[in-house]
Design a protein that fits this description.
The chain has seven helices and no strands. It has 194 residues and is mainly alpha-helical. The longest helix is centred in the middle third of the chain and has 42 residues.
Length: 194
């Protein structure tokens, strides 16, 4: 009997869903990092804000991003997997509910939804660390908003590096391209808010 991780990998294999999970992680990870960058740039351009207010706003956005990712991916992937199972059952002229394909149609949408919801939530949460530290009177940096903006840039670079590794291309160039997206975002917010 294979362990749960091996079973999960097998279900991803028979549904060819590895790429889908990876795409959801990166796409919604970008959403989380860019949303936090936008929020914190808004605070910065607007003249600053209390750490408690910034943390509440960032947490609200992080939870909304996580819930959006979780529910939208589950609804869409579940529908796609049920269609895939019905077509397979029609082709094989048998009920596959209790087969590996049936399990895959039920479990893979849950996995995809978890990844899609967790990526923006966890990345957003990591970017709020300067506010948590400021509220605990730990200030390794003078302005938690600026520190959060810096962490958003690091998150963008990390996602770019991940994409570079996945595509077997230059991880450095891929990371730089992701940072350039963040730079353009900051420039637009700066122009609009000025």
């Amino acid at each position: 009997m294979a362990n749960p991780i091996q079973q999960l990998l097998f279900l991803l294999h028979i549904t060819r869903s590895h790429g889908i999970v990876r795409r959801y992680f990166v796409v919604n990870g970008f959403d989380g990092a860019l949303t936090m960058l936008g929020l914190n740039m808004g605070f910065y351009v607007g003249g600053g804000v209390e750490a408690s207010v910034a943390l509440s706003a960032c947490l609200g956005a992080a939870i909304a991003l996580g819930m959006s990712g979780l529910t939208s991916a589950y609804i869409s992937e579940s529908a796609e997997r049920q269609l895939w199972l019905r077509e397979l059952e029609e082709a094989m002229v048998r009920d596959l509910t209790s087969s590996a394909h049936g399990r895959a149609a039920r479990i893979v949408p849950l996995l995809v939804a978890l990844v899609n919801g967790a990526a923006p939530f966890l990345i957003s949460l990591a970017i709020t660390v300067p506010f948590w530290l400021a509220l605990a009177d730990i200030r390794p940096w003078p302005d938690p908003v600026v520190a959060a903006i810096g962490l958003a840039f690091i998150a963008m670079f990390g996602l770019g590096v991940f994409l570079g590794r996945v595509s077997d291309s230059s991880w450095l160039w891929s990371g730089i391209k992701a940072v350039l997206i963040a730079v353009v975002t900051v420039a637009i917010i700066w122009l609009v808010g000025d």
